[in-house]
Amino acid sequence: MLTTRRILETFKQLGITHVVGLPDNSTAALFHELAEDPDIYLISVTREGEAFATAAGLWIGGQHPLVLIQNTGLLESGDALRGTLTRMRIPVVSLISYRGYKSLPNPIPQTLTPDDLSRRDVDSVAVLLEPTLRAWEIPYEIISDNSELEKIIAAQQRAQNEMRPTAVVIAETIR
């Protein structure tokens, strides 16, 4: 299980100053806690693409932001990610909730067909998430419980070392 308390502790350990994003069902509890937390400033956006531009501006201004969005929002905001964080080599971690994770077929097809993307029993955004991250050359890890929170720390270290955005995909609802 992923808990807001442990995630906030991890953010503070990393020196995160701002979380920028848009809540969804899986991350709502974390957004609620962030809104009440005196140590990390929460910036809610109206579109996920704004989160990347805002995080870029914060980083340029000397802050340590983190982006928190859903996988649908990642797909919506691809050009903002490419044109700001990736192009400008800004080392920001994105936490991405994995809507539809439990509906994924096993195994996930390596090449997606129109039939794969139109199945009623599979959320197509789930099928597209990992191939999209790979295509955009965004290093990522998947987490599903508190024992894996060190992956957020590793993603932050990799982002800093390589001066590039990284991602951590959240496969469970945060409680």
The CATH first-level class comes to: Alpha Beta
Strand order of the largest sheet: 2-1-3-4-6-5
- As a whole number of angstroms, the C-alpha radius of gyration is 15 Å
Number of helices: 8
The tally of structural domains comes to: 1
What topology does this entry show?
Elements: H1 4-14, E1 18-21, H2 28-36, E2 41-44, H3 48-60, E3 65-70, H4 71-76, H5 78-86, E4 93-97, H6 114-117, H7 124-135, E5 140-143, H8 150-162, E6 166-170
Parallel strand pairs: 1-2, 1-3, 3-4, 4-6, 5-6
Helix pairs in contact: 1-2, 3-5
Brief overview:
This protein is α/β, with parallel strands linked by helices and 175 residues long. It has helices at residues 4-14, 28-36, 48-60, 71-76, 78-86, 114-117, 124-135, 150-162; strands spanning 18-21, 41-44, 65-70, 93-97, 140-143, 166-170. Helix 2 links the parallel strand 1 and strand 2 (41-44).
Task: Output the keywords.
175 residues, alpha/beta
Tell me what the structure shows.
33% of the residues are buried. The protein is globular, with a radius of gyration of 15 Å. The model has no long low-confidence stretch (mean pLDDT 96). Helix content is 44%, strand content 16%. It contains eight helices and six strands, in the order H-E-H-E-H-E-H-H-E-H-H-E-H-E. It has a six-stranded parallel β-sheet with strand order 2-1-3-4-6-5, sandwiched between helices. The protein has a single domain (4-170), classed as Rossmann fold, CATH 3.40.50. It has 175 residues and is of the alpha/beta class.
